[in-house]
């Protein structure tokens, strides 16, 4: 029997209080994610249970118990407090998936700070935009990545502390602090900050179609949604060994790579090394992993490497598989059933903004390969007519995926951007404040994705409603790429769009016009690619650059990405009457 049991029954009797029962949390108790995920598990007598089984490059590995998790997160909490970091301050975590990432995340929450995890592959420009945007006060990084912080530190007056948590302390520059939590005295007791449900917890930056990335702010109350979905969708239990392949620089890696599993006291595994199918299968085999949460791009890469590789490992420990981030193609679902002893990947749909899973395939419910499944109990979901924004009743008709506000893990604002927050709600009054919007059950929060619902209530993803590029499950904003492209000395104008890709679904393609005196060449193309890779990230790097004499524009002079994208996808380019014909 699965944790959810009957989906229909859960819908009928639903209350978010069930999450409190699962967490064994009583009214009036401290609500702090850092405490719930470590100290509370120890108080329940599970301090000696492994919390984190970690493997890195080569054969580096270590195991930490919940007692360790408690002590090392306390270590970070104490250290940050001593450094003058205060509740509400944004503290960035900028490192690979090393154990200190996990300890510091909980440590920041324990001292009342707002954790701002950023993907360690980000270049200096991606980093700068996000630190400036959040007014970040301290950054935790490693010897490997501190160079990028040095490049931008002068331009970030609010960034008071640069703390290096791993590497050679002799190589630090002036104004940088070294702190290795495992070398420092063990802190077994720390007085956790008295947060409440609405105290800010995590700030994740996410890309939109216009402007720079926005910070989606979450609160400690999010754990209600994360714990309950981890139980009912991932079916996680006390004796499971769980693996979430996502990096905590992205929301999957925090909601389901830290908070969800540890709130339930489960053992989780982290693999901090590059992808190869052999390494992945070996990791599952050696650690006897039972529940595995991954992404379509990885599944397609495994598929490509063939069934023989799978067959050479003992993967019999696996009992439940789930996926998120991009459309999970039916072939991948069917393939997984064939090679993993009848286990199929269960697709789940959600976003940085939703904080937790919204539409999923549940254990025990029939999977329709290619469908994202049904709304989580307690979540009211619809597809809205593209023009009228009224819920569509007719099965199969495409509209905008939308949710009634008010679920616990919903984002509470876009950091310092109330207008953009408001624009995500259909029916919002012009002067509505974030705190009114997030609980108004007359509104719809619009996700920015298109889908249809079939006669059985299953949701089918169609595509994004905007120009945001989804490459390997990571959203990349075209504006951010275009802004960086035009900083290159040779480029006059630029447009970035997603182009189809077999494994990553989409990769970035750039269309550029050159400044006088520059000629298209292979060297220039390589130079531009590297320029973007270093400044932004490998994800944002264009895989192809097309030189043009001019770019399509509206009469008012705005570049029309939509047109370039349609050509890339071999689609109808639509109404061009607004394009300039120069
Ligand atoms: C966007 C959110 C939340 C997890 C990771 C990404 C796309 C997400 C699916 C799915 C098709 C999906 C959507 C969504 N997406 N899950 N199961 N099928 N598309 O978080 O970076 O905020 O991206 O990822 O376009 O809006 P994110």
Share of β-strand residues: 15-25%
Given as residue ranges, the uncertain stretches (5+ residues, pLDDT < 50) are none
The distinct bound ligands, ions and cofactors come out as: 5'-O-[(S)-butoxy(hydroxy)phosphoryl]adenosine
Q: What spatial order of strands do you see in the largest sheet?
A: 2-1-11-10-12-13-14-15-16
Distance between the termini: 66 Å
Question: CATH superfamily name of the largest domain?
Answer: ANL, N-terminal domain
Our count of domains comes out at 3
Please explain how this structure is put together.
- The protein has 582 residues and is of the alpha/beta class.
- The protein folds into three domains: 7-360, ANL, N-terminal domain (Rossmann fold), CATH 3.40.50; 380-464, Luciferase, Domain 3 (Luciferase, domain 3), CATH 2.30.38; 470-569, 2-Layer Sandwich (GMP Synthetase, Chain A, domain 3), CATH 3.30.300.30.
- It is 29% helix and 23% strand.
- Helix 3 packs parallel to helix 9 (251-263).
- The longest helix is centred in the N-terminal third of the chain and has 17 residues, at 66-82.
- It is globular.
- The relative contact order is 0.09.
- The model has no long low-confidence stretch (mean pLDDT 95).
- Residues 206, 250-252, 324-327, 347-352, 372, 447-449, 461, 464, 470, 475 line the site of 5'-O-[(S)-butoxy(hydroxy)phosphoryl]adenosine (WT7).
């Amino acid at each position: 029997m699965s944790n959810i049991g009957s989906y229909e029954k859960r819908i009928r009797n639903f209350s978010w209080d069930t999450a409190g029962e699962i967490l064994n949390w009583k009214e009036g108790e401290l609500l702090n994610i850092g405490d719930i995920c470590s100290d509370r598990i120890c108080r329940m007598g599970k301090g000696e249970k492994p919390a984190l089984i970690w493997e890195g490059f080569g054969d580096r590995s270590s195991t930490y118990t919940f007692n360790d998790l408690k002590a090392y997160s306390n270590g970070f909490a104490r250290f940050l407090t001593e450094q003058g970091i205060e509740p509400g301050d944004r503290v960035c975590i900028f490192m690979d998936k090393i154990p200190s990432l996990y300890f510091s995340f909980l440590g920041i929450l324990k001292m009342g700070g707002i954790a701002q995890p950023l993907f360690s592959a980000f270049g200096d420009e991606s980093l700068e935009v996000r630190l400036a945007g959040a007014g970040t006060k301290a950054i935790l990084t490693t010897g490997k990545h501190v160079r990028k912080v040095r490049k931008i530190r002068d331009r970030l007056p609010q960034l008071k502390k640069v703390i290096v948590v791993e590497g050679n302390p002799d190589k630090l520059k002036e104004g940088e602090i070294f702190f290795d939590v495992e070398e420092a005295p063990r802190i077994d007791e720390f007085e956790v900050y008295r947060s409440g449900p609405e105290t800010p917890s995590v700030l994740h930056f996410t890309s939109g179609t216009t402007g720079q990335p926005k910070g989606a702010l979450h609160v400690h109350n999010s754990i209600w949604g994360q714990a309950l979905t981890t139980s009912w969708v991932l079916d996680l239990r006390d004796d499971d060994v769980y693996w979430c392949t996502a990096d905590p620089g992205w929301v999957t890696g925090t909601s389901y790579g830290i908070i969800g599993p540890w709130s339930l006291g489960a053992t989780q595994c982290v693999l901090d090394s590059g992808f190869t199918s052999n390494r992945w299968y070996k990791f599952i085999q050696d650690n006897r992993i039972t529940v595995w949460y991954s992404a379509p791009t990885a599944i397609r890469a495994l598929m490509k490497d063939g069934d023989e590789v799978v067959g050479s490992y003992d993967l019999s420990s696996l009992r439940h598989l789930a996926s998120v981030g991009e459309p999970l193609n039916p072939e991948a679902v069917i393939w997984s059933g064939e090679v993993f002893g009848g286990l199929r990947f269960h697709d789940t749909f959600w976003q940085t903004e939703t904080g937790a899973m919204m539409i999923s395939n549940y254990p025990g419910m029939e999977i329709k390969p290619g469908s994202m499944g049904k709304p989580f109990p307690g979540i009211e979901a619809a597809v809205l007519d593209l023009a009228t924004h009224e819920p569509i009743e007719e099965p199969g008709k495409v509209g905008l995926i939308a949710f009634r506000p008010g679920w616990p893990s919903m984002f509470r604002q876009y950091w310092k951007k109330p207008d953009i927050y408001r624009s995500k709600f259909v029916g919002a009054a012009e002067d509505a404040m974030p705190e009114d919007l997030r609980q108004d059950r007359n509104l719809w929060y619009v996700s920015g994705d298109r889908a249809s619902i079939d006669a059985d209530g299953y949701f089918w993803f169609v595509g994004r409603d905007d120009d945001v590029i989804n490459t390997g499950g990571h959203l990349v904003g075209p504006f951010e790429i275009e802004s960086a492209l035009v900083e290159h000395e040779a480029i006059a104008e630029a447009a970035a769009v997603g182009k189809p890709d077999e494994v990553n679904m989409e990769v970035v393609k750039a269309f550029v016009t050159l400044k006088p005196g520059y000629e298209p060449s292979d060297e220039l193309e390589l130079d531009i690619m590297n320029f973007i890779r270093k400044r932004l990230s490998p994800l944002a790097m264009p895989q192809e650059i097309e030189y043009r004499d001019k770019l399509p524009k509206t009469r008012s002079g705005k570049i029309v990405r939509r047109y370039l994208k349609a050509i890339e996808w071999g689609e109808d380019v639509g109404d061009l009457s607004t394009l300039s014909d120069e």
